From TrEMBL:
Function comment: Involved in the TonB-dependent energy-dependent transport of various receptor-bound substrates. Protects ExbD from proteolytic degradation and functionally stabilizes TonB.
GO cellular component: plasma membrane
Organism (species): Altericroceibacterium indicum
Name of the protein described by the UniProt record: Biopolymer transport protein ExbB
Keywords, ordered alphabetically: Cell inner membrane, Cell membrane, Membrane, Protein transport, Transmembrane, Transmembrane helix, Transport
Domain of life: Bacteria
Residue ranges, compositional bias (Low complexity): 249-263
Length: 263
């Protein structure tokens, strides 16, 4: 701003920056613009997958709270299924478990019911995990390839700088600043695209692992409940019972009575 004021006071125009980001893309031509477009697509896709998968994971974790609080308090699995949201992962496991139980009665071979229902629940759980993992390969691909795509732009920028030096016969700053600036910009863009993709992939993968553990535990409880005709149920700890258990555990044990001696 000070330079502009001094230039205006002196009656001279302020010098124009000919080496900005826009100018670098224009000088880079179609190749630089194509690489930049690919980077933009990768970045938009990364944040789209991050937001959508995060919302999906939060929905499943929120539904799990209702599973723990209300599902196992019902008298039967059929009644408990009605308390779960339709098209949810937990409802799918319950429906597939009940379907496997009814299908086993129609079989004529000696396949054990436990083995058949275990395989059915495992197949249902695998399909849920597959849906949760959707989009993560794209994040892994972006994290692995974006730096190299940016490096391609860097190589092209340096090549253009060398051509400018050869044609002009001198390595003056005005000849190489544009191509070198373009090369550095492409390197920075590649890193800016790759780092969020890697972080998002690792974070979503860790959350998917946690959800997978919850699904496995719920499927195991379902299998035990179906195999025992409803006799086996997981212990549901409410907030009140948890607080009561904590008070009992924190209460000190009573001191032993002193033995009495006879005179």
């Amino acid at each position: 701003m000070l330079i502009d004021i001094l230039a205006a006071a002196g009656g001279e125009a302020a010098p124009q920056n000919a080496f900005g980001f826009k100018e670098a893309l224009e000088q880079g031509g179609l190749i630089a613009q194509t690489i930049f477009g690919i980077m933009v697509i990768m970045s938009v896709g990364t944040f789209f997958i991050l937001i959508t998968k995060l919302l999906e994971q939060n929905k499943i974790l929120r539904q799990y709270k209702s599973v723990r609080s209300g599902f196992w308090k019902t008298s039967s699995l059929q009644e408990g299924a009605t308390k779960l949201e339709k098209n949810s992962a937990w409802r799918q496991l319950v429906d597939d478990g009940l379907a496997a139980q009814s299908q086993h009665t129609k079989m004529t071979d000696s396949l054990e019911a436990h083995e058949w229902m275990h395989g059915s629940l495992a197949r249902s759980e695998a399909s849920i995990n597959s849906r949760l993992s959707g989009g993560l390969p794209f994040l892994a691909t972006v994290g692995a390839t974006a730096p190299f795509i940016g490096l391609l732009g860097t190589v092209i920028g340096i090549y253009r700088a060398l051509i400018s030096i050869g044609l002009s016969g001198s390595a003056s700053i005005d000849k190489v600043a544009g191509p070198v600036g373009e090369a550095l910009i492409m390197t920075a863009i590649g890193l800016l695209v790759a780092v969020p993709a890697v972080l998002a992939y690792n974070w979503l993968q860790a959350r998917n692992k946690r959800i997978g553990e919850l699904l496995t535990g719920f499927a195991t409880d379902l299998l035990a409940n179906i195999s025992s005709n409803g006799a086996v149920r997981p212990q549901v700890m409410t907030q009140a019972s948890t607080q009561q258990a904590g008070k009992v555990a924190a209460k000190p044990a009573a001191a032993p009575a002193k033995p009495t001696t006879k005179a």
